[in-house]
């Protein structure tokens, strides 16, 4: 899956446009709720070895908020990793060019959107 497909999905589904807040990492795109500006996703291009993948070069991933009970199951499957630079109990990193299907990624985006919809209680 390519980042453009994710951006098209969130634009059509949630009215979200990617935000590029970091000058040092201009390709890192944050997905935010329109009203609260709270994050529900982060698309990044990382060195493969940062995720423990034995491969030269970079890989594209998305970080998504996820139900902690689901994270354990997902991390045992290929294409899912502990959240890169985020809370590993509540976030997960998904490899975009991997075995995870488009439908699964869209379902996880929807879950992340719902989990981040409201502020902390």
TrEMBL record:
Q: Which UniProt keywords apply?
A: DNA-binding
GO molecular function list: DNA binding
Please state what the protein is called.
Answer: MmcQ/YjbR family DNA-binding protein
